[in-house]
Amino acid sequence: MSKVVKFGGSSLADAEQFQKVAKIIHEDEERRYVVPSAPGKRYPKDEKVTDMLYACYAEAEAGEDFLPLLKRIRGRYEEIIEGLRLDLSLEEEFREIEKCFCEKVGKEYAASRGEYLNGLVMANFLGYEFVDAAEVIFFRENGEFDAAYTDEVLSARLKNCERAVIPGFYGATRDGRVKTFSRGGSDITGSIVAKAVRADVYENWKDVSGFLIADPRIIKNPKGIETITYRELRELSYMGASVFHEDAIFPVRQEGIPINIRNTNIPEDNGTWIVGSTCQKSKYVITGIAGKKGFCAVNIEKDMMNSEIGFGRKVLQAFEENGISFEHVPSGIDTMTVFVHQDEFMHKEQKVVAGIHRLANPDSIDIESDLALIAVVGRGMKSTRGTAGRIFSALAHSNVNVRMIDQGSSELNIIIGVADEDFETAIRAIYDIFVITRL
Ligand code: ASP
Fold first, then answer.
1. Mind listing the pLDDT tens digit for each residue in 154-168?
2. What pLDDT, on the 0 to 100 scale, is given for residue 374?
């Protein structure tokens, strides 16, 4: 049996947090592979080491004096090393980093040092082997992650390794140039390692006890989610729920390895389980609610649209030609609406409208802005009568005007469009009806 444990930046922000992490690891023999992030914030106004590294490298690139900031970064690690009373010097490492910054080797290399150094400290503290991610996680020249080659090399490397620390967030091309995932990418490394060792569980330790049914900035003390499927999570993360990196689901999903999101500061909480499928019913009909503001609806009308073959394709071609992806396309008999991100669409608006006229020759086009989309997600909806009815009566009672409805064919989610200004009221109304009053 083996578990891969990934710890986020705030779980490793200082020596005290390192102690908590070590206690968690030592409590369970199966926690054999550790993936650390770079040190995060110690208090709300603090800086993350990764942000400091990006800033420091920008100074180096601009030919400014970057040494004071590099010294502060070093200070963060030294504070941890002293706090843990480790016999470890990062002298050599920082000399090398300084040299590479002077040579301007690239900002991905710079950012990756946060995890690299934290990995060295962690391995020393735990007495585990250190495996440099640049030797086992591979990217192609174009920056894409090379899953097949990584799995081959990484699983061979960890096969004879009882316990190891593998830093998160980065890897390298086959010729050794360091590359990183997008921000928050240590979650992805954890998932890749879990796949490579065919772990029984991928534990992801953060500073929250898993996922919440709704955004705590909108709902006060929302209830937690005990179990969620990969697909439900995809829907919610796409709509803005951001506890876990979206792309981190794929490697473990292929192997059916469950993910357990846990809280380093409250380890006794069970957290959230993310699984392939489950017969466990969620406590409520819905699993979660998420949403985003800032969408535009492009309404297109044409008499007899319904019988004109290829009309939809021509309209969407106008968006494609301008490099704009669409979110939803609800349609009626003579109308079709395309939902797009306002900030993407704004600058190209007139070009797209001209394109639709040219390609599809509609009767009229009308644009509505400042719309929000809300996804109500739940595997339980399929087998429960009246879910949509409950949502819309709750919204009507709260005086929210529904501008669009789209129920995914999987019956896993219902997407609702409302005005931006109604966004919070709508989420509160939906939360209330399913979680609080449970009518
Ligand atoms: N340290 C990186 C970041 O701040 C990666 C991570 O923490 O997952 O984005």
1. 999 999 899 999 999
2. 95
Report which of 54, 85, 83, 84 is spatially closest to residue 70, judged by C-alpha positions.
54
Which backbone phi and psi does 242 adopt, to 5 degrees?
-125, 45
Q: Which of 11, 35, 47, 48 to mutate to test the pocket of ligand 1 (most atoms within 8 A of CB)?
A: 48
300 shares a domain with 194: no
Query: Which of left, alpha, beta for 296 (phi over 0: left; psi -120 to 50: alpha)?
Result: beta
Judge if 182 and 319 occupy the same domain: no
> In this structure, which residue's CA is closest to atom 6 in ligand 1?
184
Give pLDDT, residue 197.
Answer: 97
Q: What three-state secondary structure class fits 364?
A: strand
Give residue for tokens 């899953």.
147
Measured from the Cα of 189, ligand 1's closest atom is 8
Lateral strand order in the sheet of 3-7: 129-130, 164-165, 31-36, 3-7, 201-206, 259-263, 272-275, 227-229
Pairing verdict, β 201-206 and 227-229: unpaired
Which pair of structure tokens corresponds to residue 409?
A: 């064919």
Mean pLDDT, residues 341-356: 95
Give residue 138's domain range: 3-199
Whether residues 169 and 24 fall in one domain: yes
In single-letter form, the type of residue at position 352 comes to: V
Chain CA centroid to CA 342, Å: 21
For ligand 1, the distance from its centroid to the CA atom of residue 55, given in whole angstroms, is 14
State the DSSP H helix or E strand holding residue 366, giving kind and residue range, or none if neither. Answer: strand 364-377
Ligand 1 atom with least separation from CA of 114: 1
For ligand 1, pick from 37, 137, 245 the residue to mutate: most ligand atoms within 8 Å of CB.
37
